[in-house]
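Below: protein 1.
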Amino acid sequence: MPPVLRRAARPASRLAVLVAVLVGVLVAGCHAHRPLGPPVPTGATTLGGPAMTAAPPPGWQAHVNVPTSQQQAQDTVLGYLKKTLGALPAGVVFDAGRYGSAASTAPCNDAPLNTHPPKQFSATGDLKLPPGLDAGKLIAQVGDVWKSWGWWVLQRDGMSKPNRSGFSRDGYELHIEVPAVPGPPNITGTSPCFGHDIARDDLRFPTTITAGA
């Protein structure tokens, strides 16, 4: 009998080990989740297109400033959009009229609904250009402007080109690109993720923005 009992025990032992390993993997995956705030960009973004594979330049490092209120997130995005417009030729205007509203607040990282996920604010609009201003040259200029602020800037593959994505050191992002169909360039500003408990939908965000307004 003892030899029979030992042979029967080995398969059960292997099954127990397998179960333990699977449980460990699942637990580790759960603990790896970060509820707030984008990590230091590593070359991937889900906003506006496919993942990017470029790495940030040497010495570039983000210090994410997680918004403490919806108003702070909106004001910072608005400030970066105005600052961008202020560095461009006169007459360039941010216009979200055809979108109905420039602003949106959505769960971060495609989080499931009804799970109280962190939120992220974004604002999108077209850049209306004065006659004679080339959209492709303007987009390249915008990228140079963001670089001059110390941002990490790159052009994404697999998207309509030209395009530029700019990542600030405080965790905010700006993206500009030509549309797939003929039309003006569109630009999006987005905030770091913040707690769902401070998200609001009653704060105004302008549909038209100029450098001085």
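Below: protein 2.
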Amino acid sequence: MTRAFLVAALLAGCAAPQKTASAPKPVKDVSPLERKFADTPDDPKVNLELGDRASLGGDYLRAEQYYVRAEALGTPEPQIVPRIIKSLVMARRYDEALERCKKRLERTPTDRVTRLVEAAIFEALERPREAERELTVLVRTKPDDPNPYLALGKLYRDSYNDAPRARAMFTKYLALAPKGDEADSIRYQMEEAAPTPDDPPPAAPSPAAPSPTAPTPAVPSSNEVPPSQP
């Protein structure tokens, strides 16, 4: 069990939340929000606000601690889980973030944002086939959403080095979101990568000289069909 789940389990099992022993300690320079936390440590909104502030400051461990408390104190899952996942991802704790995504999707398979994040984590872990699987689910369930096409285009470009498939996905993204956040950048990349009419066709590679000991490859007759490539 990860530390985050252990803390959440301990907090959830407390009969009297005010006796929770695992609350993160505020820093010495006490702000009004931290004074409020000292007075009402089991206010989920206060914990959520402190988590947000810690996250903005780059203290992702402290942010996770406050978020886990807010979760155990009743903050709705759609509101708190994305924050926890973001903290784990920013801290490069990808395996824990992936576990959070999986549990969320087991309960709510229609959560598209979490599935998109899960695909990005798979790609970060160099697991492109699993990332492609999750993105394909998003395309199948909502074909007019441009974001999965953008993610698939980047996946095919960066992980598979498959320019034709990447271009097809980027083209679909631009058709659905011509003024999207990354539309201009993707359009520029596609124009740069497109061959010009003046470009000469690539030269065919010269056949390698056969080795003296190598067997002569069999040439299929006109009525034979060459075996398909794996």
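Residues 1-21, 204-230 have pLDDT under 50 and may be disordered.
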